[in-house]
TrEMBL record:
<feature type="domain" description="Peptidase M20 dimerisation">
    <location>
        <begin position="211"/>
        <end position="294"/>
    </location>
</feature>
<dbReference type="Pfam" id="PF07687">
    <property type="entry name" value="M20_dimer"/>
</dbReference>
<dbReference type="GO" id="GO:0070573">
    <property type="term" value="F:metallodipeptidase activity"/>
</dbReference>
<dbReference type="InterPro" id="IPR011650">
    <property type="entry name" value="Peptidase_M20_dimer"/>
</dbReference>
<keyword id="KW-0170">Cobalt</keyword>
<keyword id="KW-0862">Zinc</keyword>
<keyword id="KW-0479">Metal-binding</keyword>
<keyword id="KW-0645">Protease</keyword>
<keyword id="KW-0482">Metalloprotease</keyword>
<dbReference type="InterPro" id="IPR002933">
    <property type="entry name" value="Peptidase_M20"/>
</dbReference>
<dbReference type="GO" id="GO:0046872">
    <property type="term" value="F:metal ion binding"/>
</dbReference>
<dbReference type="GO" id="GO:0006508">
    <property type="term" value="P:proteolysis"/>
</dbReference>
<comment type="similarity">
    <text>Belongs to the peptidase M20C family.</text>
</comment>
<dbReference type="GO" id="GO:0005829">
    <property type="term" value="C:cytosol"/>
</dbReference>
<dbReference type="Pfam" id="PF01546">
    <property type="entry name" value="Peptidase_M20"/>
</dbReference>
<keyword id="KW-0378">Hydrolase</keyword>
<dbReference type="InterPro" id="IPR001160">
    <property type="entry name" value="Peptidase_M20C"/>
</dbReference>
Length: 488
């Protein structure tokens, strides 16, 4: 199904705007084109439109007749999207629009991330701004930038810019869930240089590839216990080092901090005399991992190919420390919340491992809804890498969002959801990072809530959005806007 046919899906008002948005490249930290696109959209509707000093776009629309006495609502979503693709997919995110298709009840992309996170929220707000027949109070659309790699848009939004009383964040990925809290996070970066050594004679070169993993959102999906390609690769390399004297030339695994790594590639050599035994051991090790993860990662693939000898390898002492550090560093759920059943409190994602040309770099994202627990885990990870001589920086820290169970807008959403769907919604905090906690620092009196349509596989090429859920979500949004509380 082509993008033209996507535009015919119901509700057309939302899918058409989503298709428009997906034609615009919008990677995190390079949102110039989508900022211009959104400003032109607001100006084209003759609505008050402004771009703040960091690039957030704000569009205001007056209330429809009869709802002028209601509190002003801020509708908030982020403009950037995670750019991930399968290795076999030929696609240029900088110049091409996302190619979409329908499979049953799901809209997906052709081998790339879809951008439903948070493009469907953006498209919904655009549809509301453009509408002429939907009742609503005064609206203030806030389109933030760089949510996925630093939340710098939310951090850079100054107090006093927004006029609204209630904020509806449209960035939750389960349509029966109403979000009332989220985790904060901190980026951990470990780097060091190392001496390279020339490869000795009587060696054989290999390339090892780990791929076929599901990947996914390092916040929402971390509880699933999915495979991490960086950790899998390290298990194999450490075994090869200890049993066959394996020497590493390059490692290139994972990508963005907020995506669970799906692929890793390593180039190395071993003594030629051990070649056959090593190949047999790798085959056996692959079978062990595949059996270990057969339920969670049924498509896991581990392949070994002979290649020309690399020119250089890591110095022996640094390599040993590197392998043991990656083995030791925590990955996955660190602590479950003792207060909210089923909620991950603290976690870490070993997101990126790069070894090449005398430099190594490891990127992690540590999340927690409890600041002291986040600090504890971050210090644990920092210590592991400092023990092998790395320089470790902690940056991009952002706060969590503390639940307010007495929220007036929460009561509105719960009652509306029950009336429309004849069932109770799931009111919950999430382990992902939402912008509400950051925005709340400069707008402490704003009543905030988060909800959205069902999205699966965010931050991976398997990302998909439920068509029926978008229909449900669109109805829910419209009904909420009809029943916003009156001004105080």
């Amino acid at each position: 199904m082509t993008n033209t046919e996507i535009r015919q899906l119901e509700p057309q008002a939302v899918w058409q705007k989503f298709a428009d948005l997906n034609a615009v490249p919008r990677p995190s930290k390079h949102e110039e084109r989508v900022i211009a696109f959104m400003k032109a959209f607001g100006d084209g509707l003759n609505l008050e439109t402004l771009v703040d000093e960091v690039g957030n776009v704000i569009i205001r629309k007056p209330a429809t007749a009869g709802l002028e006495d209601r509190q002003m609502v801020v509708l908030q979503s982020h403009l950037d999207m995670v750019h991930q693709k399968n290795n076999a997919t030929q696609f240029d995110f900088d110049s091409e629009g996302i190619q979409m298709k329908v499979e049953g009840d799901w809209v997906k992309a052709e081998g790339t991330t879809l951008g439903a996170d948070n493009g469907l929220g953006v498209a919904t707000i655009m549809a509301l701004l453009e509408s002429t027949d939907i009742s609503h109070p005064a609206l203030e659309a806030l389109f933030t930038i760089d949510e996925e790699t630093g939340m710098t848009g939310a951090m850079g939004l100054k107090g006093g810019v927004l006029k609204g009383d209630i904020l509806l964040n449209l960035d939750t990925e389960e349509d029966d869930e109403i979000g009332v809290g989220c985790a904060g996070g901190v980026d951990i970066t470990a780097t060091r240089t190392y001496k390279q050594e020339p490869v000795e004679e009587a060696k054989t070169g290999f390339q090892l590839t780990v791929n076929g993993l599901q990947g996914g959102h390092s916040g929402m999906d971390i509880i699933k216990g999915l495979g991490n390609a960086n950790k899998f690769m390290n298990r194999i390399l450490l075994d090869g080092f200890e049993n066959y004297g394996l020497r590493i030339s390059e490692v290139n695994g994972g990508g963005l901090r907020n995506a669970i790594p799906r692929e890793s590639v390593a180039i190395f050599c071993i003594d030629t005399v051990h070649e056959e035994a090593f190949k047999s051991d790798i085959k056996e090790f692959a079978e062990v991992l595949q059996e270990e993860y057969k339920t969670l990662e049924p498509n896991l693939k581990i392949s070994l190919d002979s290649i020309d000898l690399p020119e250089n390898v890591m110095s022996l002492g640094v390599q040993e420390g590197f392998l043991k550090a990656i083995q030791a560093v925590w990955n996955g759920v660190y602590r479950m919340s003792p207060d909210i059943e089923g909620l991950v409190e603290t976690s870490n994602n070993v997101a990126r491992v790069l070894v090449r040309n005398g430099e190594l770099e490891v990127l992690c994202l540590t999340r927690s809804s409890v600041e002291s627990s986040r600090t504890d885990l971050a210090n644990t990870i920092r210590s592991v890498f400092e023990l092998i001589g790395c320089e470790v920086t902690l940056s991009g820290e952002y706060p969590g969002w503390k639940p307010n169970m007495d929220s007036a807008i929460l009561k509105v959403l719960v009652e509306k959801y029950k009336k429309i769907n004849h069932e109770e919604p799931h009111v919950a905090a999430c382990h992902a990072g939402l912008e509400c906690g950051i925005l709340g620092q400069n707008y402490p009196d704003m009543d905030m809530i988060s909800f959205g349509p069902t999205i699966r596989g965010a931050h991976s090429p398997d990302e998909r959005a439920s068509i029926s859920s978008v229909q449900k979500f669109w109805t829910f949004v419209q009904e909420i806007l009809k029943d916003i509380p009156a001004k105080n």
